[in-house]
Write a structure and sequence with these properties.
mainly alpha; 80% helix
Amino acid sequence: MRSPLAMIAALGVTQIIGYGSLYYAFPIMAPAVAQEFGVSEPLLFGLLSAGLLLGGLAAPQLGGLLDRMGAPRVMAAGSLLMAGLSAALALAPSLPVYGALLLLIELLSFTVLYDAAFATLAQRQPQDTRRAITRLTLIAGFASTLFWPLTGWLVDHLGWRGAQGIFAALHLGIAVPLHLALAARPRREAAPQPVVRPPLALPPPLTGAAARQAFVLLGLSFALTGMAISALGVHLVPVLLARGLGETAYLAAMVMGPAQVLIRLVDATLWRHLHPLQVAVVSAAAIPVALALLLVPGPAGLLAFAFALCFGAGGGLSSIVRGSVPVALFGVTGLGQRLGRLAAIRSVLGASAPFLFAWAMAQLGAQAAICAALAVALAGVLALVMLRRQIDRAGALSVSA
């Protein structure tokens, strides 16, 4: 697979399968799983949160594997593991077995999701990583749009176990071969080659104390914003249903995917000359704006669609800046481990978000849960603004097109 566009398309397909089956399908299947095992849904989201935490703690080590072994090889192995674990999940005889398998899936999901895909792009296209990341996320943005209704249909017709079996087949029959094909492509090393400037000429990577300070602020902002995105992303349909929207809740939720794709098109065209950190500020600010739309009075249906558009835009950009900002600030060398460390910070702070939001909704109501998520999202914006001011004072945002 030597064509850059073919490589991006292949990764886009595997990201749709990865995020669709490992993330977006979970809240749709959770009621059926809880009913079969006789437990509450918050307990299942607690297991998911524990798995996210374990995955974050393992991310730096897994990120190091991306650098040492090559990201496509790690992704191929990860997809094979996801296929086996998903098949085992479909056969889980009890809640303890189900929980253990869910923890393993979340522990290893780093190897098949965006961070691993971004590392693959950095290794294969080191001089044009940002554009490649944007193109990848344009494709992967359809994961929620496809897998929310697909999972609902599968659960209705095959049960949640049948749905897990289908997901296992997708990992084994599609993701594994595509990742193996990417692994067969020769890897490009960026360091020994002369620097060829992409359309956006970025300043030299940060080093020393400035790099460490920037990394901490970036990690904190990504984590706080990620908490809000994770909480609402998992519970988006239940939150909209709680507003009494009925079937309109599903229609509004499906707007999120196209909104992600649309904003990524804007980033690829109108914003391609902006520094990724400037785009990151827009991304982070869109999340509290979206949450505020759920709190203001007005026509519930119209506000729900506006929320989905704004939330989808912020989430769509967040996927891009998660890979493009570290490349812009720190360079591509050692990117896998750096992405792993950022994932660890996100997970330590954000793994509890789905569980806490589910608990808050059950105990305090949807309004209180949304207010808490809004406060967290605003803190994420503040950290990113502090980072931008720090770098702007040093002149690091001065770029030439």
